[in-house]
């Protein structure tokens, strides 16, 4: 005899967590995915990725189920190891800075040409247009699918230091500074006279505490997310690079999905990328006052003095990236070098 369920009995049988009721999907997922990213669980990237994949699950009636792991699930090798997992199909979705993608797809480093973008919105416009599409084409050749609106925001990068502020390039002389993987950012700080050292993002705090490095460079939101304000005393507003987190998929996994699933994922990706950009922009803008109130000293810098150290870097990278990529970038930001 068939069992009949009333609305009351269905609600009563749902799983309760605190004041939230979670009703299990009516069907098992057809597609189960893993999404990695390198930011803390409390940050705007994690919150918007979780919201994005929740929306995808709802709009596909449970056909797509994705688990989002903050800090790359704390794998030992950090971003480079997570990128290898994406290329191997061991994870299906990942967000990553262009500089690190550039270890596999060199033109992706163009997102982080020093002093190219004057603001985060200018960078967003570029990566949503022909410049970003060209990078996506090159990524596809290496087995990665870059979403049409892919650039979650990190923000404009500033230099934070333990012992002295940075006012001119000579202040970098001999300074050990943590930078993310990527040859362009190494070349940039080497041109200033610094000694670039790389660590995973979630190890910056320990590197500063131990004295392995005496400086790091990131948007202010990263200072907050990893509590770096406990370690540094100075913030020099260099605005030397923009960086973001490119949303990408394992290409073979993506192409195998039904078209109607792809549409739902892409629509929600665009929605939540734009939402996160707003969230991150507000966060970065408000943190200067927050940190200053804690006694951290801020100073402005004259970018012209720093750019004057970079002609060889620009010339080298114009050749490495190729004339098409460089022309697309300059179409957005003006002449470089």
What do these coordinates show?
By secondary structure, the chain is α/β, with parallel strands linked by helices. It has a single domain (26-333), classed as Bacterial extracellular solute-binding protein, family 7 (D-Maltodextrin-Binding Protein, domain 2). The protein contains 14 helices and 13 strands. It has helices at residues 7-12, 44-59, 78-88, 98-101, 120-127, 130-140, 183-191, 204-210, 220-225, 251-256, 259-293, 303-307, 311-321, 323-333; strands spanning 15-17, 20-22, 31-36, 64-69, 93-96, 144-156, 158-161, 176-179, 195-198, 215-218, 234-237, 242-250, 297-300. Strands 9-8-10-7-11-13 form a six-stranded mixed beta sheet, with helices on both faces. Strands 4-3-5-12-6 form a five-stranded mixed beta sheet. Strands 1-2 form a two-stranded antiparallel ribbon. Strand 8, helix 7 and strand 9 (195-198) form a beta-alpha-beta unit. The radius of gyration is 22 Å and the shape is globular. Pfam families: DctP.
Mind telling me the CATH class?
Alpha Beta
CATH topology: D-Maltodextrin-Binding Protein, domain 2
**How many DSSP H or I helices?**
14
**Low-confidence parts lasting 5 or more residues at pLDDT below 50?**
1-25
Biggest sheet descriptor: 6 strands, mixed
Question: Roughly what fraction of the amino acids lie in strands?
Answer: 15-25%
Mean pLDDT: 92
Number of strands: 13
**What is the chains' assembly state?**
single chain
- Specify the CATH homologous superfamily: Bacterial extracellular solute-binding protein, family 7
Structural class: alpha/beta
Shape: globular
From the 3D coordinates, which CATH architecture would you assign?
Answer: 3-Layer(aba) Sandwich
- Kindly report how far apart the N and C termini lie: 79 Å
Question: What is the count of distinct domains?
Answer: 1
C-alpha Rg (nearest Å): 22 Å
Strand order of the largest sheet: 9-8-10-7-11-13
Order of helices and strands: HEEEHEHEHHHEEEHEHEHEEHHEHHH
